[in-house]
Design goal:
Low-confidence stretches: none
Shape: globular
Strand content: 15-25%
Mean pLDDT: 95
Helix content: 25-40%
Number of helices: 16
């Protein structure tokens, strides 16, 4: 996926000097063998870490192999000082995991005590202030450890992506639409760079690309992607010019960062000055791995990018928008066992990638047209990508900075139903178990804005672990029936 870091995993086995190092060597080899058939590469460091000099040797070995995410494997009890020193000096995502005992026939010389060693390792990580990823049950056989390493992969990718990310913002939010404003201080706490710009900067950059020789090629690519949905071909030259503008801005302004996303103002003055709606370009950028959050939603752009890192697929940003009329569900088996309060429609004007829509087509923004072009054919309100969002598994996710500069987050797994939403925009019917309670006691009670990042897979586990590792103190999720939220009335 473009604009996404590649995780190069490395494995270092450790051994306490009063345990046989051969035990760690053998168990390390078994883990590497178990990982061989999985969808990632794992570099096996040959250094067995027993002391501080071994830590330096292992570090040198990892750097020569371009390892950027480390698995510290306790093949036996392990030396908590040197192994946590390695984690501290490594400077990237680190996971700690230990070996389970293999057989009751070999619990003398073959016993490793990593179950005990993980306790000391975690204590020493705390002393050093190192935030390491430790699985829920961090001790297992070779096959189980391989599964834990696979679960670490998206978490490590999120850490690496955020460490190299810059968010480009264009324009303040309108006075009547302040919902997504949030302090930027928590972004710097995460290691994310932010470059805020004026709408005039974007306006000037756009006009500087007038007549750009690349416009016909991009226009043709848009037409090919839209196919029969290319209903307003006359707007494509303007949209192509805008897409080139954003790509050039990112290339010229990344600076010390490696990855970039955008949070751009897109109304109300955008249409009258630029002469189009930018939604389709936002959709195309998301498809190539560069999310563009509408309405200057900086944390929305960040949330989309985190989803992309977790899934290696495009994300989208939707309004948690409207209820589903009850007569739509009556007698329709597609709604399954869900209650009316489990349902809502996720909607946006047209910023969702074409590959995520059924029968995508170029259209116009109906809400803006009411005010700007109430009569005649739409012109400056053209540029949305409409279609029903494809059915399947989803995870709602948002990382948000609060007014007092703290970080909060939520995630909720559910699905998009194969139901005609009977409305406009990029839209579908979403079903999330106990959504009504989640809506009231998380989204409203914790003052989240209306924008939700949408992952097209169930990735709550990776997102939860990543938020915990990033130090997000408040991580909310949709609690099952019978498990009350703080403040929820038990008598309701």
């Amino acid at each position: 996926m473009h604009n996404t870091p590649k995780v190069n995993l490395g494995l270092v086995a450790v051994s306490r000097d009063c345990f046989p190092a051969a035990l760690s060597v053998r168990r390390r080899a078994a883990v590497v063998s178990a990982c061989a058939g999985m969808d990632f590469d794992l570099f096996e460091a040959q250094t067995i870490l027993e002391n501080e000099k071994d830590a330096l040797a292992a570090l040198d070995e990892l750097r020569k192999a371009d390892v950027n995410a480390l698995v510290v494997y306790l093949g036996n009890f392990g030396p908590e000082g040197p192994e946590t020193l390695l984690a501290q000096k490594f400077g990237g995502p680190v996971m700690f995991v230990g070996a389970a005992e293999e057989t009751g026939d070999d619990l003398f010389d073959g016993r490793g005590d990593a179950f005990c060693g993980m306790l000391n390792a975690s204590y020493n990580l705390g002393l050093r202030g190192v935030g390491a990823y430790i699985p829920d049950y961090p001790v297992g056989d070779a096959r189980e450890v391989a599964g834990m390493i696979a679960a670490f992969l998206p978490v490590a990718r999120i850490q690496l992506g955020l460490a190299g990310l810059k968010i480009f913002g264009f324009g303040p939010r309108p006075y009547d639409f302040l919902a997504c404003n949030a302090p930027i201080k928590p972004l710097f706490d995460l290691g994310v760079e932010i470059q805020e710009n004026s709408e005039l900067d974007l306006y000037a950059a756009y006009h500087a690309h007038k007549g750009d020789k690349r416009i016909p090629e991009v226009q043709a690519d848009m037409a090919a992607e839209l196919g029969a949905g290319n209903r307003y071909a006359g707007i494509l030259p303007r949209l192509a010019q805008y897409e080139i503008t954003l790509l050039d801005w990112m290339a010229q302004n990344l600076g010390a960062s490696r990855f970039g996303v955008f949070a751009n103002k897109c109304w109300p003055a955008f249409q009258t000055q630029f002469g189009f709606v930018p939604c389709y370009v936002n959709a195309r950028m998301a498809a190539r791995g560069i999310p563009v959050a509408c309405e200057t939603d900086i944390y929305g752009a960040l949330s989309e990018y985190i989803i992309q890192l977790a899934t290696l697929s495009p994300a989208t940003l939707l309004d948690i928008n409207n209820t589903v009329p009850r007569d739509m569900a009556q007698g329709n088996a597609a709604f399954g066992p869900y209650k009316p309060t489990d349902l809502f429609m996720g909607f946006h004007c047209g910023n969702t990638a074409a590959c995520l829509l059924n029968n995508p087509k170029m259209s116009f923004q109906r809400i803006m047209r009411r005010a700007l072009e109430p009569d005649g054919e739409p012109d400056i309100t053209r540029g949305t990508l409409e279609g029903t969002i494809r059915a399947g598994d989803i995870t709602l996710f948002r990382l948000q900075g609060t007014a007092d500069c703290a970080l909060t987050s939520y995630m909720a797994e559910g699905e998009i139903l194969p139901v005609d939403p009977k409305s406009f925009g990029a839209i579908s019917v979403f079903a999330v178990p106990e959504m009504g309670r989640f809506y009231r006691h998380v989204l409203i009670a914790k003052r989240y804005p209306h924008h939700a990042g949408v992952a097209f897979a169930h990735v709550g586990r990776a997102l939860f672990d990543a938020m915990k590792l990033l130090g997000v103190g408040d991580i909310a999720y949709n609690r099952p029936a019978g498990t009350l939220y703080c403040g929820e009335n038990p008598f309701a």
